[in-house]
């Protein structure tokens, strides 16, 4: 048996989709543990680009793929993804299951998300506007509707009507232009419920049996450690737990069953939305990293903020997730640079930190302590072994390993599945 948890070690967008896709080849089951359609994975297979917001990318490998109980599901988005994948020839019906415990992102959730952001004004979080926060709020307040509720035909129309009307009263007060059309939204949701019904099951017996039979399971986290509701840069975070603990609560897999935690570490840093970002860069370097790295949100299209590699963040991630190895992604984006900086710690007045302080004010005041090293200034996208990388690039990889404190299992040198250097396969699978 193996349970491999994939976590983002920074602020999301580390390239987890490609690693999940790689691991899915050797997996019996892939389960997504949290988040919703705020996430976006891009996987490129032989030149074809696949974009996912909800469905685990393992589906491309024909691996049984599950949306776990910790996910919040927007039914319209899920229906759209299923039909898109089917039109590309992917057999979704035979492979996808959705936990009946997963909560539904209702039509009023994105509207409330927008209204809340508007009300925050200059203190806005910069959410993806997908209704994620309000859906999790309802879950925690115990007023949510779960995917399992979409199975029960009798009272469903009535319940949907009541819920939409109740939230409309709230929207009417704060943002009247965001009020839902009850009849239209109810009709759409009932149609989506009908289409999704075959996928919705209690995923516990299947997951439990897989564990008992020694299956190889991959748990796919969305977003990243620094966006974790508890351990991230609160309040500039998402509303779920992208860290390894969330992999357990979001799937029903016990902590004692986890065999590996693989942190996905981008060779530089990006962040979408508001909040402190000590190693952020501006000017020419910002444009270079953003353009070479195609750093635009898959979900929102927003340009991502970019910066140097932040070892304090990555090391913190390694610790709180118990990372057993890392996969370094997008290192090729740095190919043209003459000099590369990395930060291993911060200075804030007289204080120094080797990890991001919990107090947001203190974190915002942190100035990175940089080290510089020579770039390799070569195209490395065709290289397939660590030994063949230019010396400066090998030195960079070793330096990241020292900063993070875990070995690299693989290095991604381009977006395509083939553009991967396997450093130590035993760190990834049995
Ligand atoms: P929400 O998850 O839409 O509520 O957004 C909260 C914060 O998390 C915002 O800063 C978003 O930009 C960020 N966020 C949410 N999902 C992702 C993601 O998949 N990648 C990067 N940032 C994300």
- CA distance, first residue to last residue: 9 Å
CATH topology-level name of the largest domain: Adenylosuccinate Synthetase, Chain A, domain 3
Largest sheet report = 10 strands, mixed
Q: What compounds sit in this structure?
A: inosinic acid
Question: Which structural traits does this protein have?
Answer:
12 helices; 32% helix; alpha/beta; ten-stranded mixed sheet; globular; 430 residues; Adenylosuccinate Synthetase, Chain A, domain 3; Adenylosuccinate Synthetase, subunit A, domain 2
Task: Chart the SSEs and their pairings.
Elements: E1 2-8, H1 16-24, E2 29-32, E3 41-45, E4 48-52, E5 64-67, E6 72-73, H2 75-87, E7 96-99, E8 103-104, H3 108-120, H4 132-141, H5 153-174, H6 182-196, E9 200-201, H7 204-212, E10 216-220, H8 244-249, E11 260-266, E12 269-271, H9 284-292, E13 305-307, E14 309-310, H10 311-321, E15 325-329, E16 339-348, E17 351-353, H11 360-364, E18 367-374, H12 391-404, E19 408-412, E20 420-422
Parallel strand pairs: 1-10, 1-11, 2-5, 2-10, 5-7, 6-8, 7-9, 11-15, 14-16, 15-19
Antiparallel strand pairs: 3-4, 12-13, 16-17, 16-18, 19-20
Helix pairs in contact: 2-6, 3-4, 3-5, 5-6
Bound molecules: inosinic acid (IMP).
């Amino acid at each position: 048996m193996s349970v491999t948890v994939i976590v983002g070690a920074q602020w999301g967008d580390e390239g987890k989709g490609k690693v999940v896709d790689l691991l899915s080849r050797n997996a019996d089951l892939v389960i997504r543990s949290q988040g919703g359609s705020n996430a976006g994975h891009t996987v490129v297979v032989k030149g074809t680009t696949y974009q996912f917001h909800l469905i685990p990318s393992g589906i491309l490998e024909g691996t049984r793929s599950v949306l776990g109980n910790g996910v919040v599901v927007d039914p319209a988005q899920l229906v759209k993804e299923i039909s898109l994948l089917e039109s590309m020839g992917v057999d979704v019906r035979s492979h996808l299951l959705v936990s009946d415990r997963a909560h539904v992102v209702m039509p009023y959730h994105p509207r409330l998300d927008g209204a809340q952001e508007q009300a925050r004004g200059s203190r806005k979080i910069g959410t993806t506007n997908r209704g994620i926060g309000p859906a999790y709020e309802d879950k925690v307040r115990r007023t949510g509707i779960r995917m399992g509720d979409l199975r029960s035909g009798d009272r469903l129309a009535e319940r949907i009507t009541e819920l939409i009307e109740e939230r409309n009263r709230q929207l009417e007060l704060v943002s009247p232009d965001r009020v839902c059309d009850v009849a239209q939204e109810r009709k759409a949701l009932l149609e989506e419920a009908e289409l999704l019904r075959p996928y919705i099951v209690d995923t516990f017996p299947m997951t439990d049996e897989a564990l008992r039979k020694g299956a190889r399971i991959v748990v796919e986290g969305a977003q990243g450690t620094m966006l974790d509701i508890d351990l991230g840069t609160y309040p500039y975070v998402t509303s779920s737990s992208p860290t390894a603990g969330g992999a357990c609560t979001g799937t029903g897999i016990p902590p004692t069953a986890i065999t590996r935690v693989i942190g996905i570490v981008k060779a530089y840093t990006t962040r979408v939305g508001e909040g402190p970002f000590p190693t952020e860069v501006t000017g020419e370097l910002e444009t270079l990293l953003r353009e070479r790295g195609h750093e635009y949100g898959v979900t929102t299209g927003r340009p991502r903020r970019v910066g140097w590699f932040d070892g304090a963040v990555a090391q913190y991630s390694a610790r709180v997730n118990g990372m057993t190895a890392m996969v370094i992604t997008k290192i090729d984006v740095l190919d043209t640079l003459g000099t590369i900086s990395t930060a291993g710690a911060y200075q804030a007045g007289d204080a120094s930190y080797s990890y991001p302080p919990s107090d947001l004010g203190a974190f915002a005041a942190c100035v990175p302590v940089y080290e510089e090293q020579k770039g390799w200034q070569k195209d490395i996208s065709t290289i397939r072994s660590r030994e063949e990388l230019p010396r400066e690039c090998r030195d960079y990889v070793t330096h990241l390993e020292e900063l993070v404190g875990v070995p690299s299992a693989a290095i991604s040198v381009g977006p395509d599945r083939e553009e991967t250097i396997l450093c130590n396969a035993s760190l990834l699978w049995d």
